[in-house]
Design goal:
The protein is mostly helical. The chain is 69% helix and 1% strand. It has a two-stranded antiparallel ribbon. The N terminus and C terminus are likely disordered.
């Protein structure tokens, strides 16, 4: 009630960092992320032993690595969430410079691990995917550019962010990595819309995307094969989509039971891109609904806190991070149930993958930092003061 009457809760500037962080952080969003990570470990225990057996490794090799990378990601998330918006911006700019340089050097130094797309650096003991780290950094840099255009005499920030987005999307499309390219484009489009872009311009951009998709379908065998498979009336039961569809059907509402699922023995990506199929088969729709609810809570709560924010940079960056997080989860699950073409995209904090986990920790840490309560940060307070 105090906050409703008097505005945002004031936080003394001299407070120690940890108590101030705990009072101002969105604890529900933080809890949802931790639960998602715990679910990821649970599903890793179920999905990774078959892959370890095929690769002649200890049964819990992959889930152990997921636990290590996940704990690193949780630590990074906590640290980043303690930063001020200014420090988040500086971290985003620095991270963008490093990730963009790594992305540009992929054709020379990268590898495809036999998957037909050069997206990774092989470090021997692990792999590194620059595009995972580029996403949150790009959102922060684009928001910085767009926010600068609000200032009197400021630069054409929207135009700068548009040019940067086009360069990144083209580089990703040439790998090819259409999934990450579409996610970058979506995040930029949401921020551009929130910043006040006219609908006619957004419609023109949508038409351009449709033209680019048609061109890619005609000139990229990789892209055309995935679209044809998605549009086909029949699903080959020997494909990953076929196995995932059967697993979801077999799981029903309550699942077949812990350890009783069979899809993990057939799907090579059961621990990454199709982890939701393992969840649906062994635990049923109950766990899937819980996972969807957790992602929904993170996105909705973040956006509800951001709508009161009067700082353009915080509002735009937070919106882009929240929407990218939610849409990535939606794309991953949509592919598994054949609502979307195959994208090769992980389920945040649930799928196996060091780059995905740590980059996700950075992204959500930034989101938590931007949605923390601050003195007089509500736009309603600002409007009330102007009316007095």
């Amino acid at each position: 009630m105090t906050e409703m009457v008097h505005g945002s809760i004031p936080v003394p500037a001299g407070d120690p960092i940890i108590p101030r962080w705990w009072r101002t952080i969105d604890k529900i969003t933080l809890s949802c992320v931790l639960i998602l990570f715990a679910i990821g470990l649970l599903l890793g225990l179920a999905s990774s032993p078959p892959l370890a057996a095929r690769n002649h490794l200890p049964p819990f090799y992959y889930v152990s690595r997921q636990a290590v990378f996940g704990l690193m990601a949780m630590g990074v998330m906590m640290l980043v969430s303690m930063l001020s918006p200014t420090m988040v911006r500086r971290l985003g700019v620095l991270g963008f410079a490093l990730a963009f340089a790594a992305l540009a050097m992929l054709p020379v130094l990268g590898t495809d691990f036999g998957k037909g797309a050069i997206r990774w650096y092989s470090l021997g003991f692990a792999s590194f995917q620059p595009s995972e780290f580029l996403k949150p950094a790009f959102v922060v840099v684009a928001a910085w550019f767009m926010a600068a255009s609000y200032e009197p005499g400021g630069p054409p920030g929207r135009l700068f962010s548009f040019g940067l987005m086009i360069v990144i999307v083209l580089i990703l499309a040439l790998q090819p990595d259409f999934g990450q390219a579409s996610l970058i484009l979506f995040a930029w489009g949401v921020m551009y819309f929130v910043s006040g872009a006219p609908m006619t311009l957004l419609s023109g951009i949508a038409a351009s995307v449709a033209v680019a998709g048609t061109f890619a379908y005609s000139h990229s065998e990789h892209f055309a094969r995935r679209i044809d498979g998605f549009l086909s009336a029949d699903v080959d039961p020997r494909t990953q989509i076929g196995y995932a569809t059967d697993a979801i059907r077999e799981g029903g509402f309550f699942g077949v039971g812990l350890g009783e699922g069979q899809v993990k023995w057939s799907l090579p990506d059961a621990h990454t891109d199709f982890i939701i199929a393992v969840a649906a088969e062994e635990y049923g729709m109950i766990l899937v609904i819980l996972i969807i609810a957790l992602y929904t809570v993170v996105v909705v709560r973040s956006l509800s806190r951001l709508k009161r924010e009067r700082d353009p940079f915080i509002r735009l960056a937070g919106t882009g991070l929240a929407c990218a997080f939610g849409v990535q989860a939606m794309i991953n699950m949509g592919v598994a149930v054949r609502l979307l073409p195959a994208k090769g995209m992980t389920l945040p904090f649930v799928s196996y993958g060091g780059s995905s986990l740590i980059a996700g920790g950075i992204a959500v840490g930034m989101l938590l930092a931007l949605t923390r309560q601050r003195p007089q940060n509500a736009i309603g307070d600002f409007l009330s003061s102007r009316g007095e």
